[in-house]
Design brief:
Elements: H1 13-22, E1 25-31, E2 37-43, E3 46-47, H2 49-59, H3 66-85, H4 90-95, H5 102-113, E4 115-118, E5 123-126, H6 129-132
Antiparallel strand pairs: 1-2, 2-3, 4-5
């Protein structure tokens, strides 16, 4: 598979509205009775098991702020959306002992550097490449 920048996850303002209709991943904020906030990742209305497991065990259990957890989940959403757009089943590849090819990794990097989406407000903003890599 050869990397094609036209298939990348970049967004401009005219495409932004139609792009948001295609995203099946969302971040919801759960607020407990004691006020603790926990962002969770949802895919097509269901909890995304592995992303939320990572957020709980590697971030929240280390006392990371809810905004840190939310930012990590946003990055995971961008990666999953890229994989979906490219029709890549990463779980199947990992079970088979392989990962992403170099062109796919470059495409994923470009997708992350493109435009970040605020999944709670559906607004886009330009990412700072220093914070993406």
């Amino acid at each position: 598979m050869v990397y094609n920048p036209k298939n990348c996850f970049h967004i401009n303002q005219t495409e932004f509205g139609s792009f948001m209709d295609k995203i099946s991943y969302k971040i919801k904020l759960i607020v407990a009775d004691d006020g603790e906030r926990l962002p969770i990742m949802i895919n097509n209305g269901e909890l995304h098991y592995y992303a939320n497991l990572y957020a709980l065990t590697n971030l929240r259990m280390r006392n990371r702020a809810s905004s840190t957890v939310e930012n990590a989940l946003r990055s995971i959403i961008i990666a999953h959306q890229f994989l979906d757009n490219e029709k890549i089943d990463l779980e199947r590849r990992l079970i088979g002992g392989s990962f992403l090819t170099r062109p796919e990794l470059e495409g994923l990097t470009r997708a992350g550097i493109g435009r970040w989406i605020d999944f709670s407000t559906n607004r886009g903003h330009t990412a700072n490449p220093k914070h993406v890599l």
